[in-house]
């Protein structure tokens, strides 16, 4: 096991009408980019609205130090709802995060009702707290690098997340974060 | 009392000796350099877990007090440690964090540690077994038998952790940490464990401030999770017990995990010989922590990088025999609190980094209070007092005035 993400040969819906496949792929990209904007603006519940009831969320990383595929966070949709509800109860770093996402591949299922996508992402942390806000606030630092491995259910032409794995490349995570990535 | 002027602010607090310290112990470069020499080069450090090098010829690299260290498992299954330094010209022998010497390297043969620079080769016992063009260059003046690696004291103990000491004649490891581990010895040695989590944090704070946070539970007020799952009579009765060599153990109680929305009881996956949902904490001088929350064991190891900079390595462990489902549950239990995206660790790291901001090289010295007295229960600060009494002995410095020599009376043990 390593950090490589397996990319299958392109599948655009097999025997589906190509225009339907294209519409599904467009819907998938739209959902991924909307998710990026909603996460950046910390509209957590609006982000969850893009997720199906069956949604599962994982943050994972391969560790060459211990030769183990690690799961830093695993949650169902219900778990994420609780996590989000309790955020105000927790102390946290207030520095906003922004995600730069590029959708690399979209594969549409044969029936046009499912899809999967691989995207690259970079998360920057825009320091508000930092170590000393007098000095650090306003600086942007690279926080995370990785890939989103997403799966979708297509409902009324709209792509709903059924799973997201945020697979991280960096394992020096310093203070970490309470927020979905 | 109203806010204080500078003179009042700098005055010694109205507490007994030993109940406060001077922040220069966290900020002074000379003290930091001295700590590496006097403490870290003489203390037992759990550098990794045996499950990180499960097969013969597996290795892990690490460092202690600026010295690179390699740990490898020999064909005899023994785990040994060496300085990761070639005796020829000081090259780092192995550069990867982990791997295997079973296969050959570009510069060397299978089953050898090979320095890529000039192809000197060493076996798993640290013997030099090959010098390229040995006779041509050294004739009989420097036989390979005289240029073995620097071996280090190394033992696998207390649940399979690999302990290394740079001192050739340290205090015996059992004598060093046996008593604090007694509360969990049966549990940790019942069956093999396996590491399932690793990450590291480099934060701008002194390593002792991290260890202080692991030694005091008064900061549970910072953690919503701990307040709702723990604040009850049994919690406040937990004992903070001091042991020789500066170690402490925080006794257990039953945690009500299901009081935190979305969390579940951990009773089904308790470690061997433990009642359900227990929470033990062992803090070892000078900066190691073993934290068992029922179903998952966490281990922190500090690597001090400067007076205001520390790397902390976090490991999570379960039982080697776990089914995939059990393992995933343990991982969830561990990381929902202690992972980099968990509820508590982020808060802890913000806390110590905030201290690091107010106490950095060049900051005015401050009085840091360790004076809570609660019959050595959970919010008593006796753990930190005990630690700094030990620190004073090792450093021959008085924690409340680090320019003065240590005196036992001044920071008398509880």
From TrEMBL, chain B:
Keyword Metal-binding: yes
Segments forming domain Rieske: 44-163
Keywords: 2Fe-2S, Dioxygenase, Iron, Iron-sulfur, Metal-binding, Oxidoreductase
InterPro entries, alphabetized: Rieske_2Fe-2S, Rieske_2Fe-2S_sf, Ring_hydroxy_dOase_asu_C_dom, Rng_hydr_dOase-A
GO terms for MF: dioxygenase activity
Entries under PANTHER family matching the protein: 3-PHENYLPROPIONATE_CINNAMIC ACID DIOXYGENASE SUBUNIT ALPHA, CHOLINE MONOOXYGENASE, CHLOROPLASTIC
Entry's family note: Belongs to the bacterial ring-hydroxylating dioxygenase alpha subunit family.
The protein, known as: Aromatic ring-hydroxylating dioxygenase subunit alpha
Organism: Chelatococcus sambhunathii
């Amino acid at each position: 096991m390593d950090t490589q993400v397996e990319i299958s040969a392109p599948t655009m819906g097999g025997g589906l009408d190509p225009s339907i496949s294209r519409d599904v792929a467009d819907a998938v990209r739209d959902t991924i980019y909307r998710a990026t904007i909603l996460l950046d603006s910390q509209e957590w519940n609006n982000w969850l609205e893009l997720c199906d009831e069956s949604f599962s969320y994982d943050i994972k990383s391969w560790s060459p130090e211990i030769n183990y595929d690690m799961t830093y966070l695993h949650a169902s949709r219900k778990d994420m709802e609780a996590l989000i509800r309790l955020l105000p109860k927790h102390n946290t770093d207030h520095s906003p995060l922004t995600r730069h996402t590029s959708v690399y591949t979209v594969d549409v299922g044969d029936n046009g009702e499912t899809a999967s996508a691989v995207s690259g992402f970079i998360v920057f942390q825009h320091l508000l707290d930092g170590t000393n806000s007098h000095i650090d606030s306003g600086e942007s630092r690279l926080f995370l690098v990785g890939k989103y491995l997403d799966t979708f259910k297509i409902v009324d032409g709209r792509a709903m997340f059924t799973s997201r794995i945020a697979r991280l490349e960096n394992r020096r995570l310093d203070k970490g974060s309470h927020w979905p990535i | 009392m109203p806010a204080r002027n500078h003179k009042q602010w700098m005055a010694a607090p109205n507490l007994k000796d030993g109940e406060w310290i001077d922040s220069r112990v966290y900020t002074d470069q000379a003290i930091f350099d001295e700590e590496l020499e006097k403490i870290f080069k003489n203390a037992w450090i759990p550098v990794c877990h045996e499950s990180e090098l499960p097969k013969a010829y597996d290795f892990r690299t690490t460092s202690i007090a600026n010295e690179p260290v390699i740990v490898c498992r020999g064909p005899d299954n023994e785990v040994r440690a060496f300085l990761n330094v070639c005796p020829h010209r000081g090259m780092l022998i192995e550069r990867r964090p982990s791997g295997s010497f079973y296969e050959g390297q570009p510069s060397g043969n299978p089953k050898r540690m090979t320095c890529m620079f000039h192809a000197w080769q060493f076996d798993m016992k640290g013997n030099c077994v090959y010098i390229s063009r040995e006779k041509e260059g050294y004739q009989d003046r420097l036989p390979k038998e005289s240029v073995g690696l620097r071996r280090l004291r190394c033992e696998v103990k207390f649940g399979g952790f690999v302990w290394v000491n740079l001192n050739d004649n340290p205090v015996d490891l059992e004598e060093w940490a046996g008593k604090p581990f007694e509360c969990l010895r049966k549990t940790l040695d019942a069956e093999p464990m396996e590491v399932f989590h690793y990450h590291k944090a480099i934060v701008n704070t002194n390593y002792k401030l991290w260890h202080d946070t692991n030694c005091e539970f008064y900061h549970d007020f910072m953690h919503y999770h701990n307040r709702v799952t723990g604040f009850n009579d049994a919690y406040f009765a937990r004992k903070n017990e001091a042991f020789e060599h500066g170690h402490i153990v925080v006794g257990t109680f039953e945690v009500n995990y299901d009081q935190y929305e979305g969390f579940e009881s951990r009773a089904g996956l308790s470690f061997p010989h433990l009642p359900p949902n227990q929470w033990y904490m062992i803090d070892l001088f000078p900066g190691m922590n073993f934290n068992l929350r029922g179903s998952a064991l966490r281990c922190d190891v500090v690597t001090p990088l400067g007076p205001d900079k520390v790397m902390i390595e976090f490991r999570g462990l379960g039982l080697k025999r776990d089914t995939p489902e059990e393992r995933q549950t343990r991982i969830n239990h561990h990381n929902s609190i202690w992972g980099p995206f968990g509820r508590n660790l982020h808060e802890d790291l913000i806390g110590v980094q905030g201290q690091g901001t107010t106490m950095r090289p060049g900051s005015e010295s401050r009085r840091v209070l360790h004076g809570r007295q609660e019959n050595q229960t959970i919010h008593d600060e006796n753990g930190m007092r005990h630690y700094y009494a030990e620190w004073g002995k090792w450093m021959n410095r008085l924690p409340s005035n680090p320019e003065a020599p240590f005196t036992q009376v001044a920071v008398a043990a509880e």
